[in-house]
Amino acid sequence: MMALGASVLRERLNTKEIIKNIFNLSDFEIDVYFLLLNGIYMLKDIVDHFGRSKSSTQRAINTLLKRGLIERTAVNSETGVIQYGYRAKPIPVVKEKIKELLKVWQEKIFSLIKSIESSSHK
After folding, report:
1. First-last CA distance in the chain
2. Considering the domain 6-120 in this protein, what is its CATH number?
3. Residue 94's pLDDT is what?
4. At what angle do helices 15-22 and 27-36 cross, to 10 degrees?
5. pLDDT tens across 72-120, in order?
6. Beta partners for 42?
7. DSSP letters along the chain, please?
């Protein structure tokens, strides 16, 4: 679920910071997401681009997949071998997901406030 921190409210609100905070991503994970907005990348390409280990890059990819921000896609190589690459879901799609998460969060907050109000009247 969404981890909306107070830092979102305090910091300069830009797309990268909003996505990072709403989806509780690390700096590396958000950097991978923004790289993948440029097209389909193989794991090796991402590792080479950032100079990070294969395992830390795979963990970042798994987090982004779990959060629904990227997708895995089959790519045919020149030798006919199928490999898997990754690409980011476009910002407008992520924007809609953020709206849905914020709506759920808002409903939970209003419900909590209502329960606090009703318990204080007893």
Report:
1. 32
2. 1.10.10.10
3. 93
4. 120
5. 999 887 888 898 999 999 999 999 999 998 998 899 998 988 888 777 6
6. 85
7. -----HHHHHS---HHHHHHHHTT--HHHHHHHHHHTTS-EEHHHHHHHHT--HHHHHHHHHHHHHTTSEEEEEEE-TTS-EEEEEEEPPHHHHHHHHHHHHHHHHHHHHHHHHHHHHHHT-
pLDDT in tens, 32-80: 999 999 999 999 999 999 999 999 999 999 999 999 999 999 988 788 8
Give the Cα separation of 108 and 40 in Å (integer): 37
How many CA within 13 A on the CB side of residue 67? Answer: 28
Token pair listed for 105: 């969060």
Domain residue spans of the chain: 6-120
Is residue 15 within 8 A of residue 23, CB to CB? The reply is no
CB 58 within 8 A of CB 44: no
pTM of the model: 0.78
C-alpha gyration radius of the chain: 18
